[in-house]
Design a protein that fits this description.
The longest helix is centred in the last third of the chain and has 25 residues. The model has no long low-confidence stretch (mean pLDDT 96). The protein starts with 16 loop residues before the first helix and ends in a 5-residue tail after the last helix. The protein is globular. α3 packs antiparallel against α12, α5 crosses α6 and α13 packs parallel to α15. β3, α6 and β4 form a beta-alpha-beta unit. It is an alpha/beta fold. The chain has 15 helices and 14 strands. The chain has two domains: 149 residues, Aspartate Aminotransferase, domain 1, CATH 3.90.1150.10; 234 residues, Aspartate Aminotransferase, domain 2.
């Protein structure tokens, strides 16, 4: 099955934001450029998902639909068998992707001008969604301890003024791939409680866990936080179906869930029928087998990439415990970010995500998406070594 992930694909000209916007956004030529920014994969989704979509197409009728029971049961099964998390299907609310779930949460549970807390560096869309909604981000830096980020809750507390309403927390952590321990998650929950913050836990990367690592869902680590906890999940990253815009809010608290149900009804939201079919098929024993094979493929990719990049003097790819997003520190080169970015884009013809977009702590970093064919990852490593050849 691992060969499925190494079959050559060409996504250029398919309306792929990752590949077709590479020249516009990064000035990287599409002819030989490598798109390594947006967090989606370059290989097809699982065969079981493709069959479900084909069955729907063969039927040929795409009218209104009802009954999410099979979909909810599939999510319940996945969370229990893959993550040891027993949920009630009634906790599940479906949204138009995880990003939409974050935006809905900000819209419903905060007001314009409210302050919203994040721990940085973190997924850049947190801050962008906060600002687009007219709210104010409060960026709390993580501490870098060698190759590992640590929480600094005392520093975070000093940055709050008592008007904050929400904390958006990334677990596993994007961009660093850090997996938080249960004790750390409980500390975050207690921090949220002390400051009366609604806690939005983005767990979209929870299926990308490398050998020897363990991920703990927030609700398992801190069940006492259920009165303020909204967990966000999706199959979109795991199965490369982000374009279907199907994600979930899992809300154990009846009052919070009721408020969101009312909001979804008010805006006349209903999920995408094809997305529902695809996620239902994905969250299955066959889908789990495919994910296990994908993890083995990604494990090869991260080792291939790290070996090449870490051979460049002054460059360090932080070891990934989770995600397929390599977080690479170029600070040891002594170069400005502009020079680093120029060499990567103009010399190596690679388009990664710029580190400064992730907030404090990202100033000397680039984020590289490794969810592609291993040959492309190896090629990216060679190009980066050539772009910094003068440091050898």
């Amino acid at each position: 099955m691992r060969d499925l992930f190494n079959q050559p694909t060409d996504r250029r000209g398919t309306h792929s934001s990752k590949w077709d916007l590479m020249e516009t956004l990064f000035d990287v030529p599409p002819e030989d450029g490598l798109a390594m920014w947006t967090a989606d994969s370059d290989y097809p989704t699982a065969p079981c998902v493709l069959r479900a979509l084909q069955e729907a197409t063969d039927h040929g009728v795409f009218g209104y639909f009802a009954d999410l029971s099979r979909y909810e049961a599939a999510i319940e099964w996945w969370m229990k068998t893959r993550h040891g998390w027993e949920i009630d299907p009634s906790w599940i609310l479906t949204t138009q992707g995880l990003g939409n779930a974050i935006a809905l949460s900000i819209d419903l549970w905060t007001q314009p001008g409210d302050r919203i807390v994040t721990f940085n560096p973190v997924y850049h869309e947190f801050e962008q969604k906060i600002r687009r909604a007219g709210r104010e981000p409060v960026q709390c830096p993580l501490k870098r301890e060698g190759d590992r980020y640590e929480l600094d809750l005392d520093d975070a507390q000093s940055r709050l003024d008592g008007t904050e309403k929400m904390l958006i927390f990334c677990s596993p952590q994007n961009p660093s791939g850090r997996i938080w321990t249960p004790d750390e998650l409980r500390a975050v929950a207690d921090f949220a409680a002390r400051n009366d913050l609604l806690l939005i836990a983005d767990e979209i990367h929870h299926d990308f866990i490398y050998p020897g690592q363990t991920f703990t869902p927030f609700d398992i680590a801190a069940p006492h936080a259920r009165d303020r906890l909204i967990v966000l999940t999706a199959a979109s990253k795991t199965f490369n179906i982000a374009g279907q815009k199907t994600g979930n809010m899992i809300i154990p608290d009846d009052e919070l869930r009721g408020e969101m149900v009312q909001r979804l009804r008010a805006i006349d939201y209903a999920p995408n029928a094809l997305g529902i079919r695809m996620v239902t098929a994905a969250y299955s024993p066959e889908g789990a087998e495919w994910v296990d094979a994908q993890i083995a493929h990604l494990d090869t990719n991260r080792k291939t990439f790290d070996a090449a990049v870490n051979a460049i003097p002054g460059v360090r790819s932080l070891p990934l415990a989770s995600t397929y997003l390599a977080w690479v520190d170029f600070s040891g080169t002594g170069m400005s970010f502009e020079e680093i970015s120029r060499r990567v884009r103009k010399n190596a013809h690679i388009a990664p995500s710029p580190g400064p977009e992730f907030g404090p702590g990202g100033e000397t970093f680039l984020r590289f998406n490794l969810a592609t064919q291993t040959a492309r990852v190896a090629e990216a490593g060679r190009r980066l070594q050539d772009a910094f050849r003068d440091l050898q």
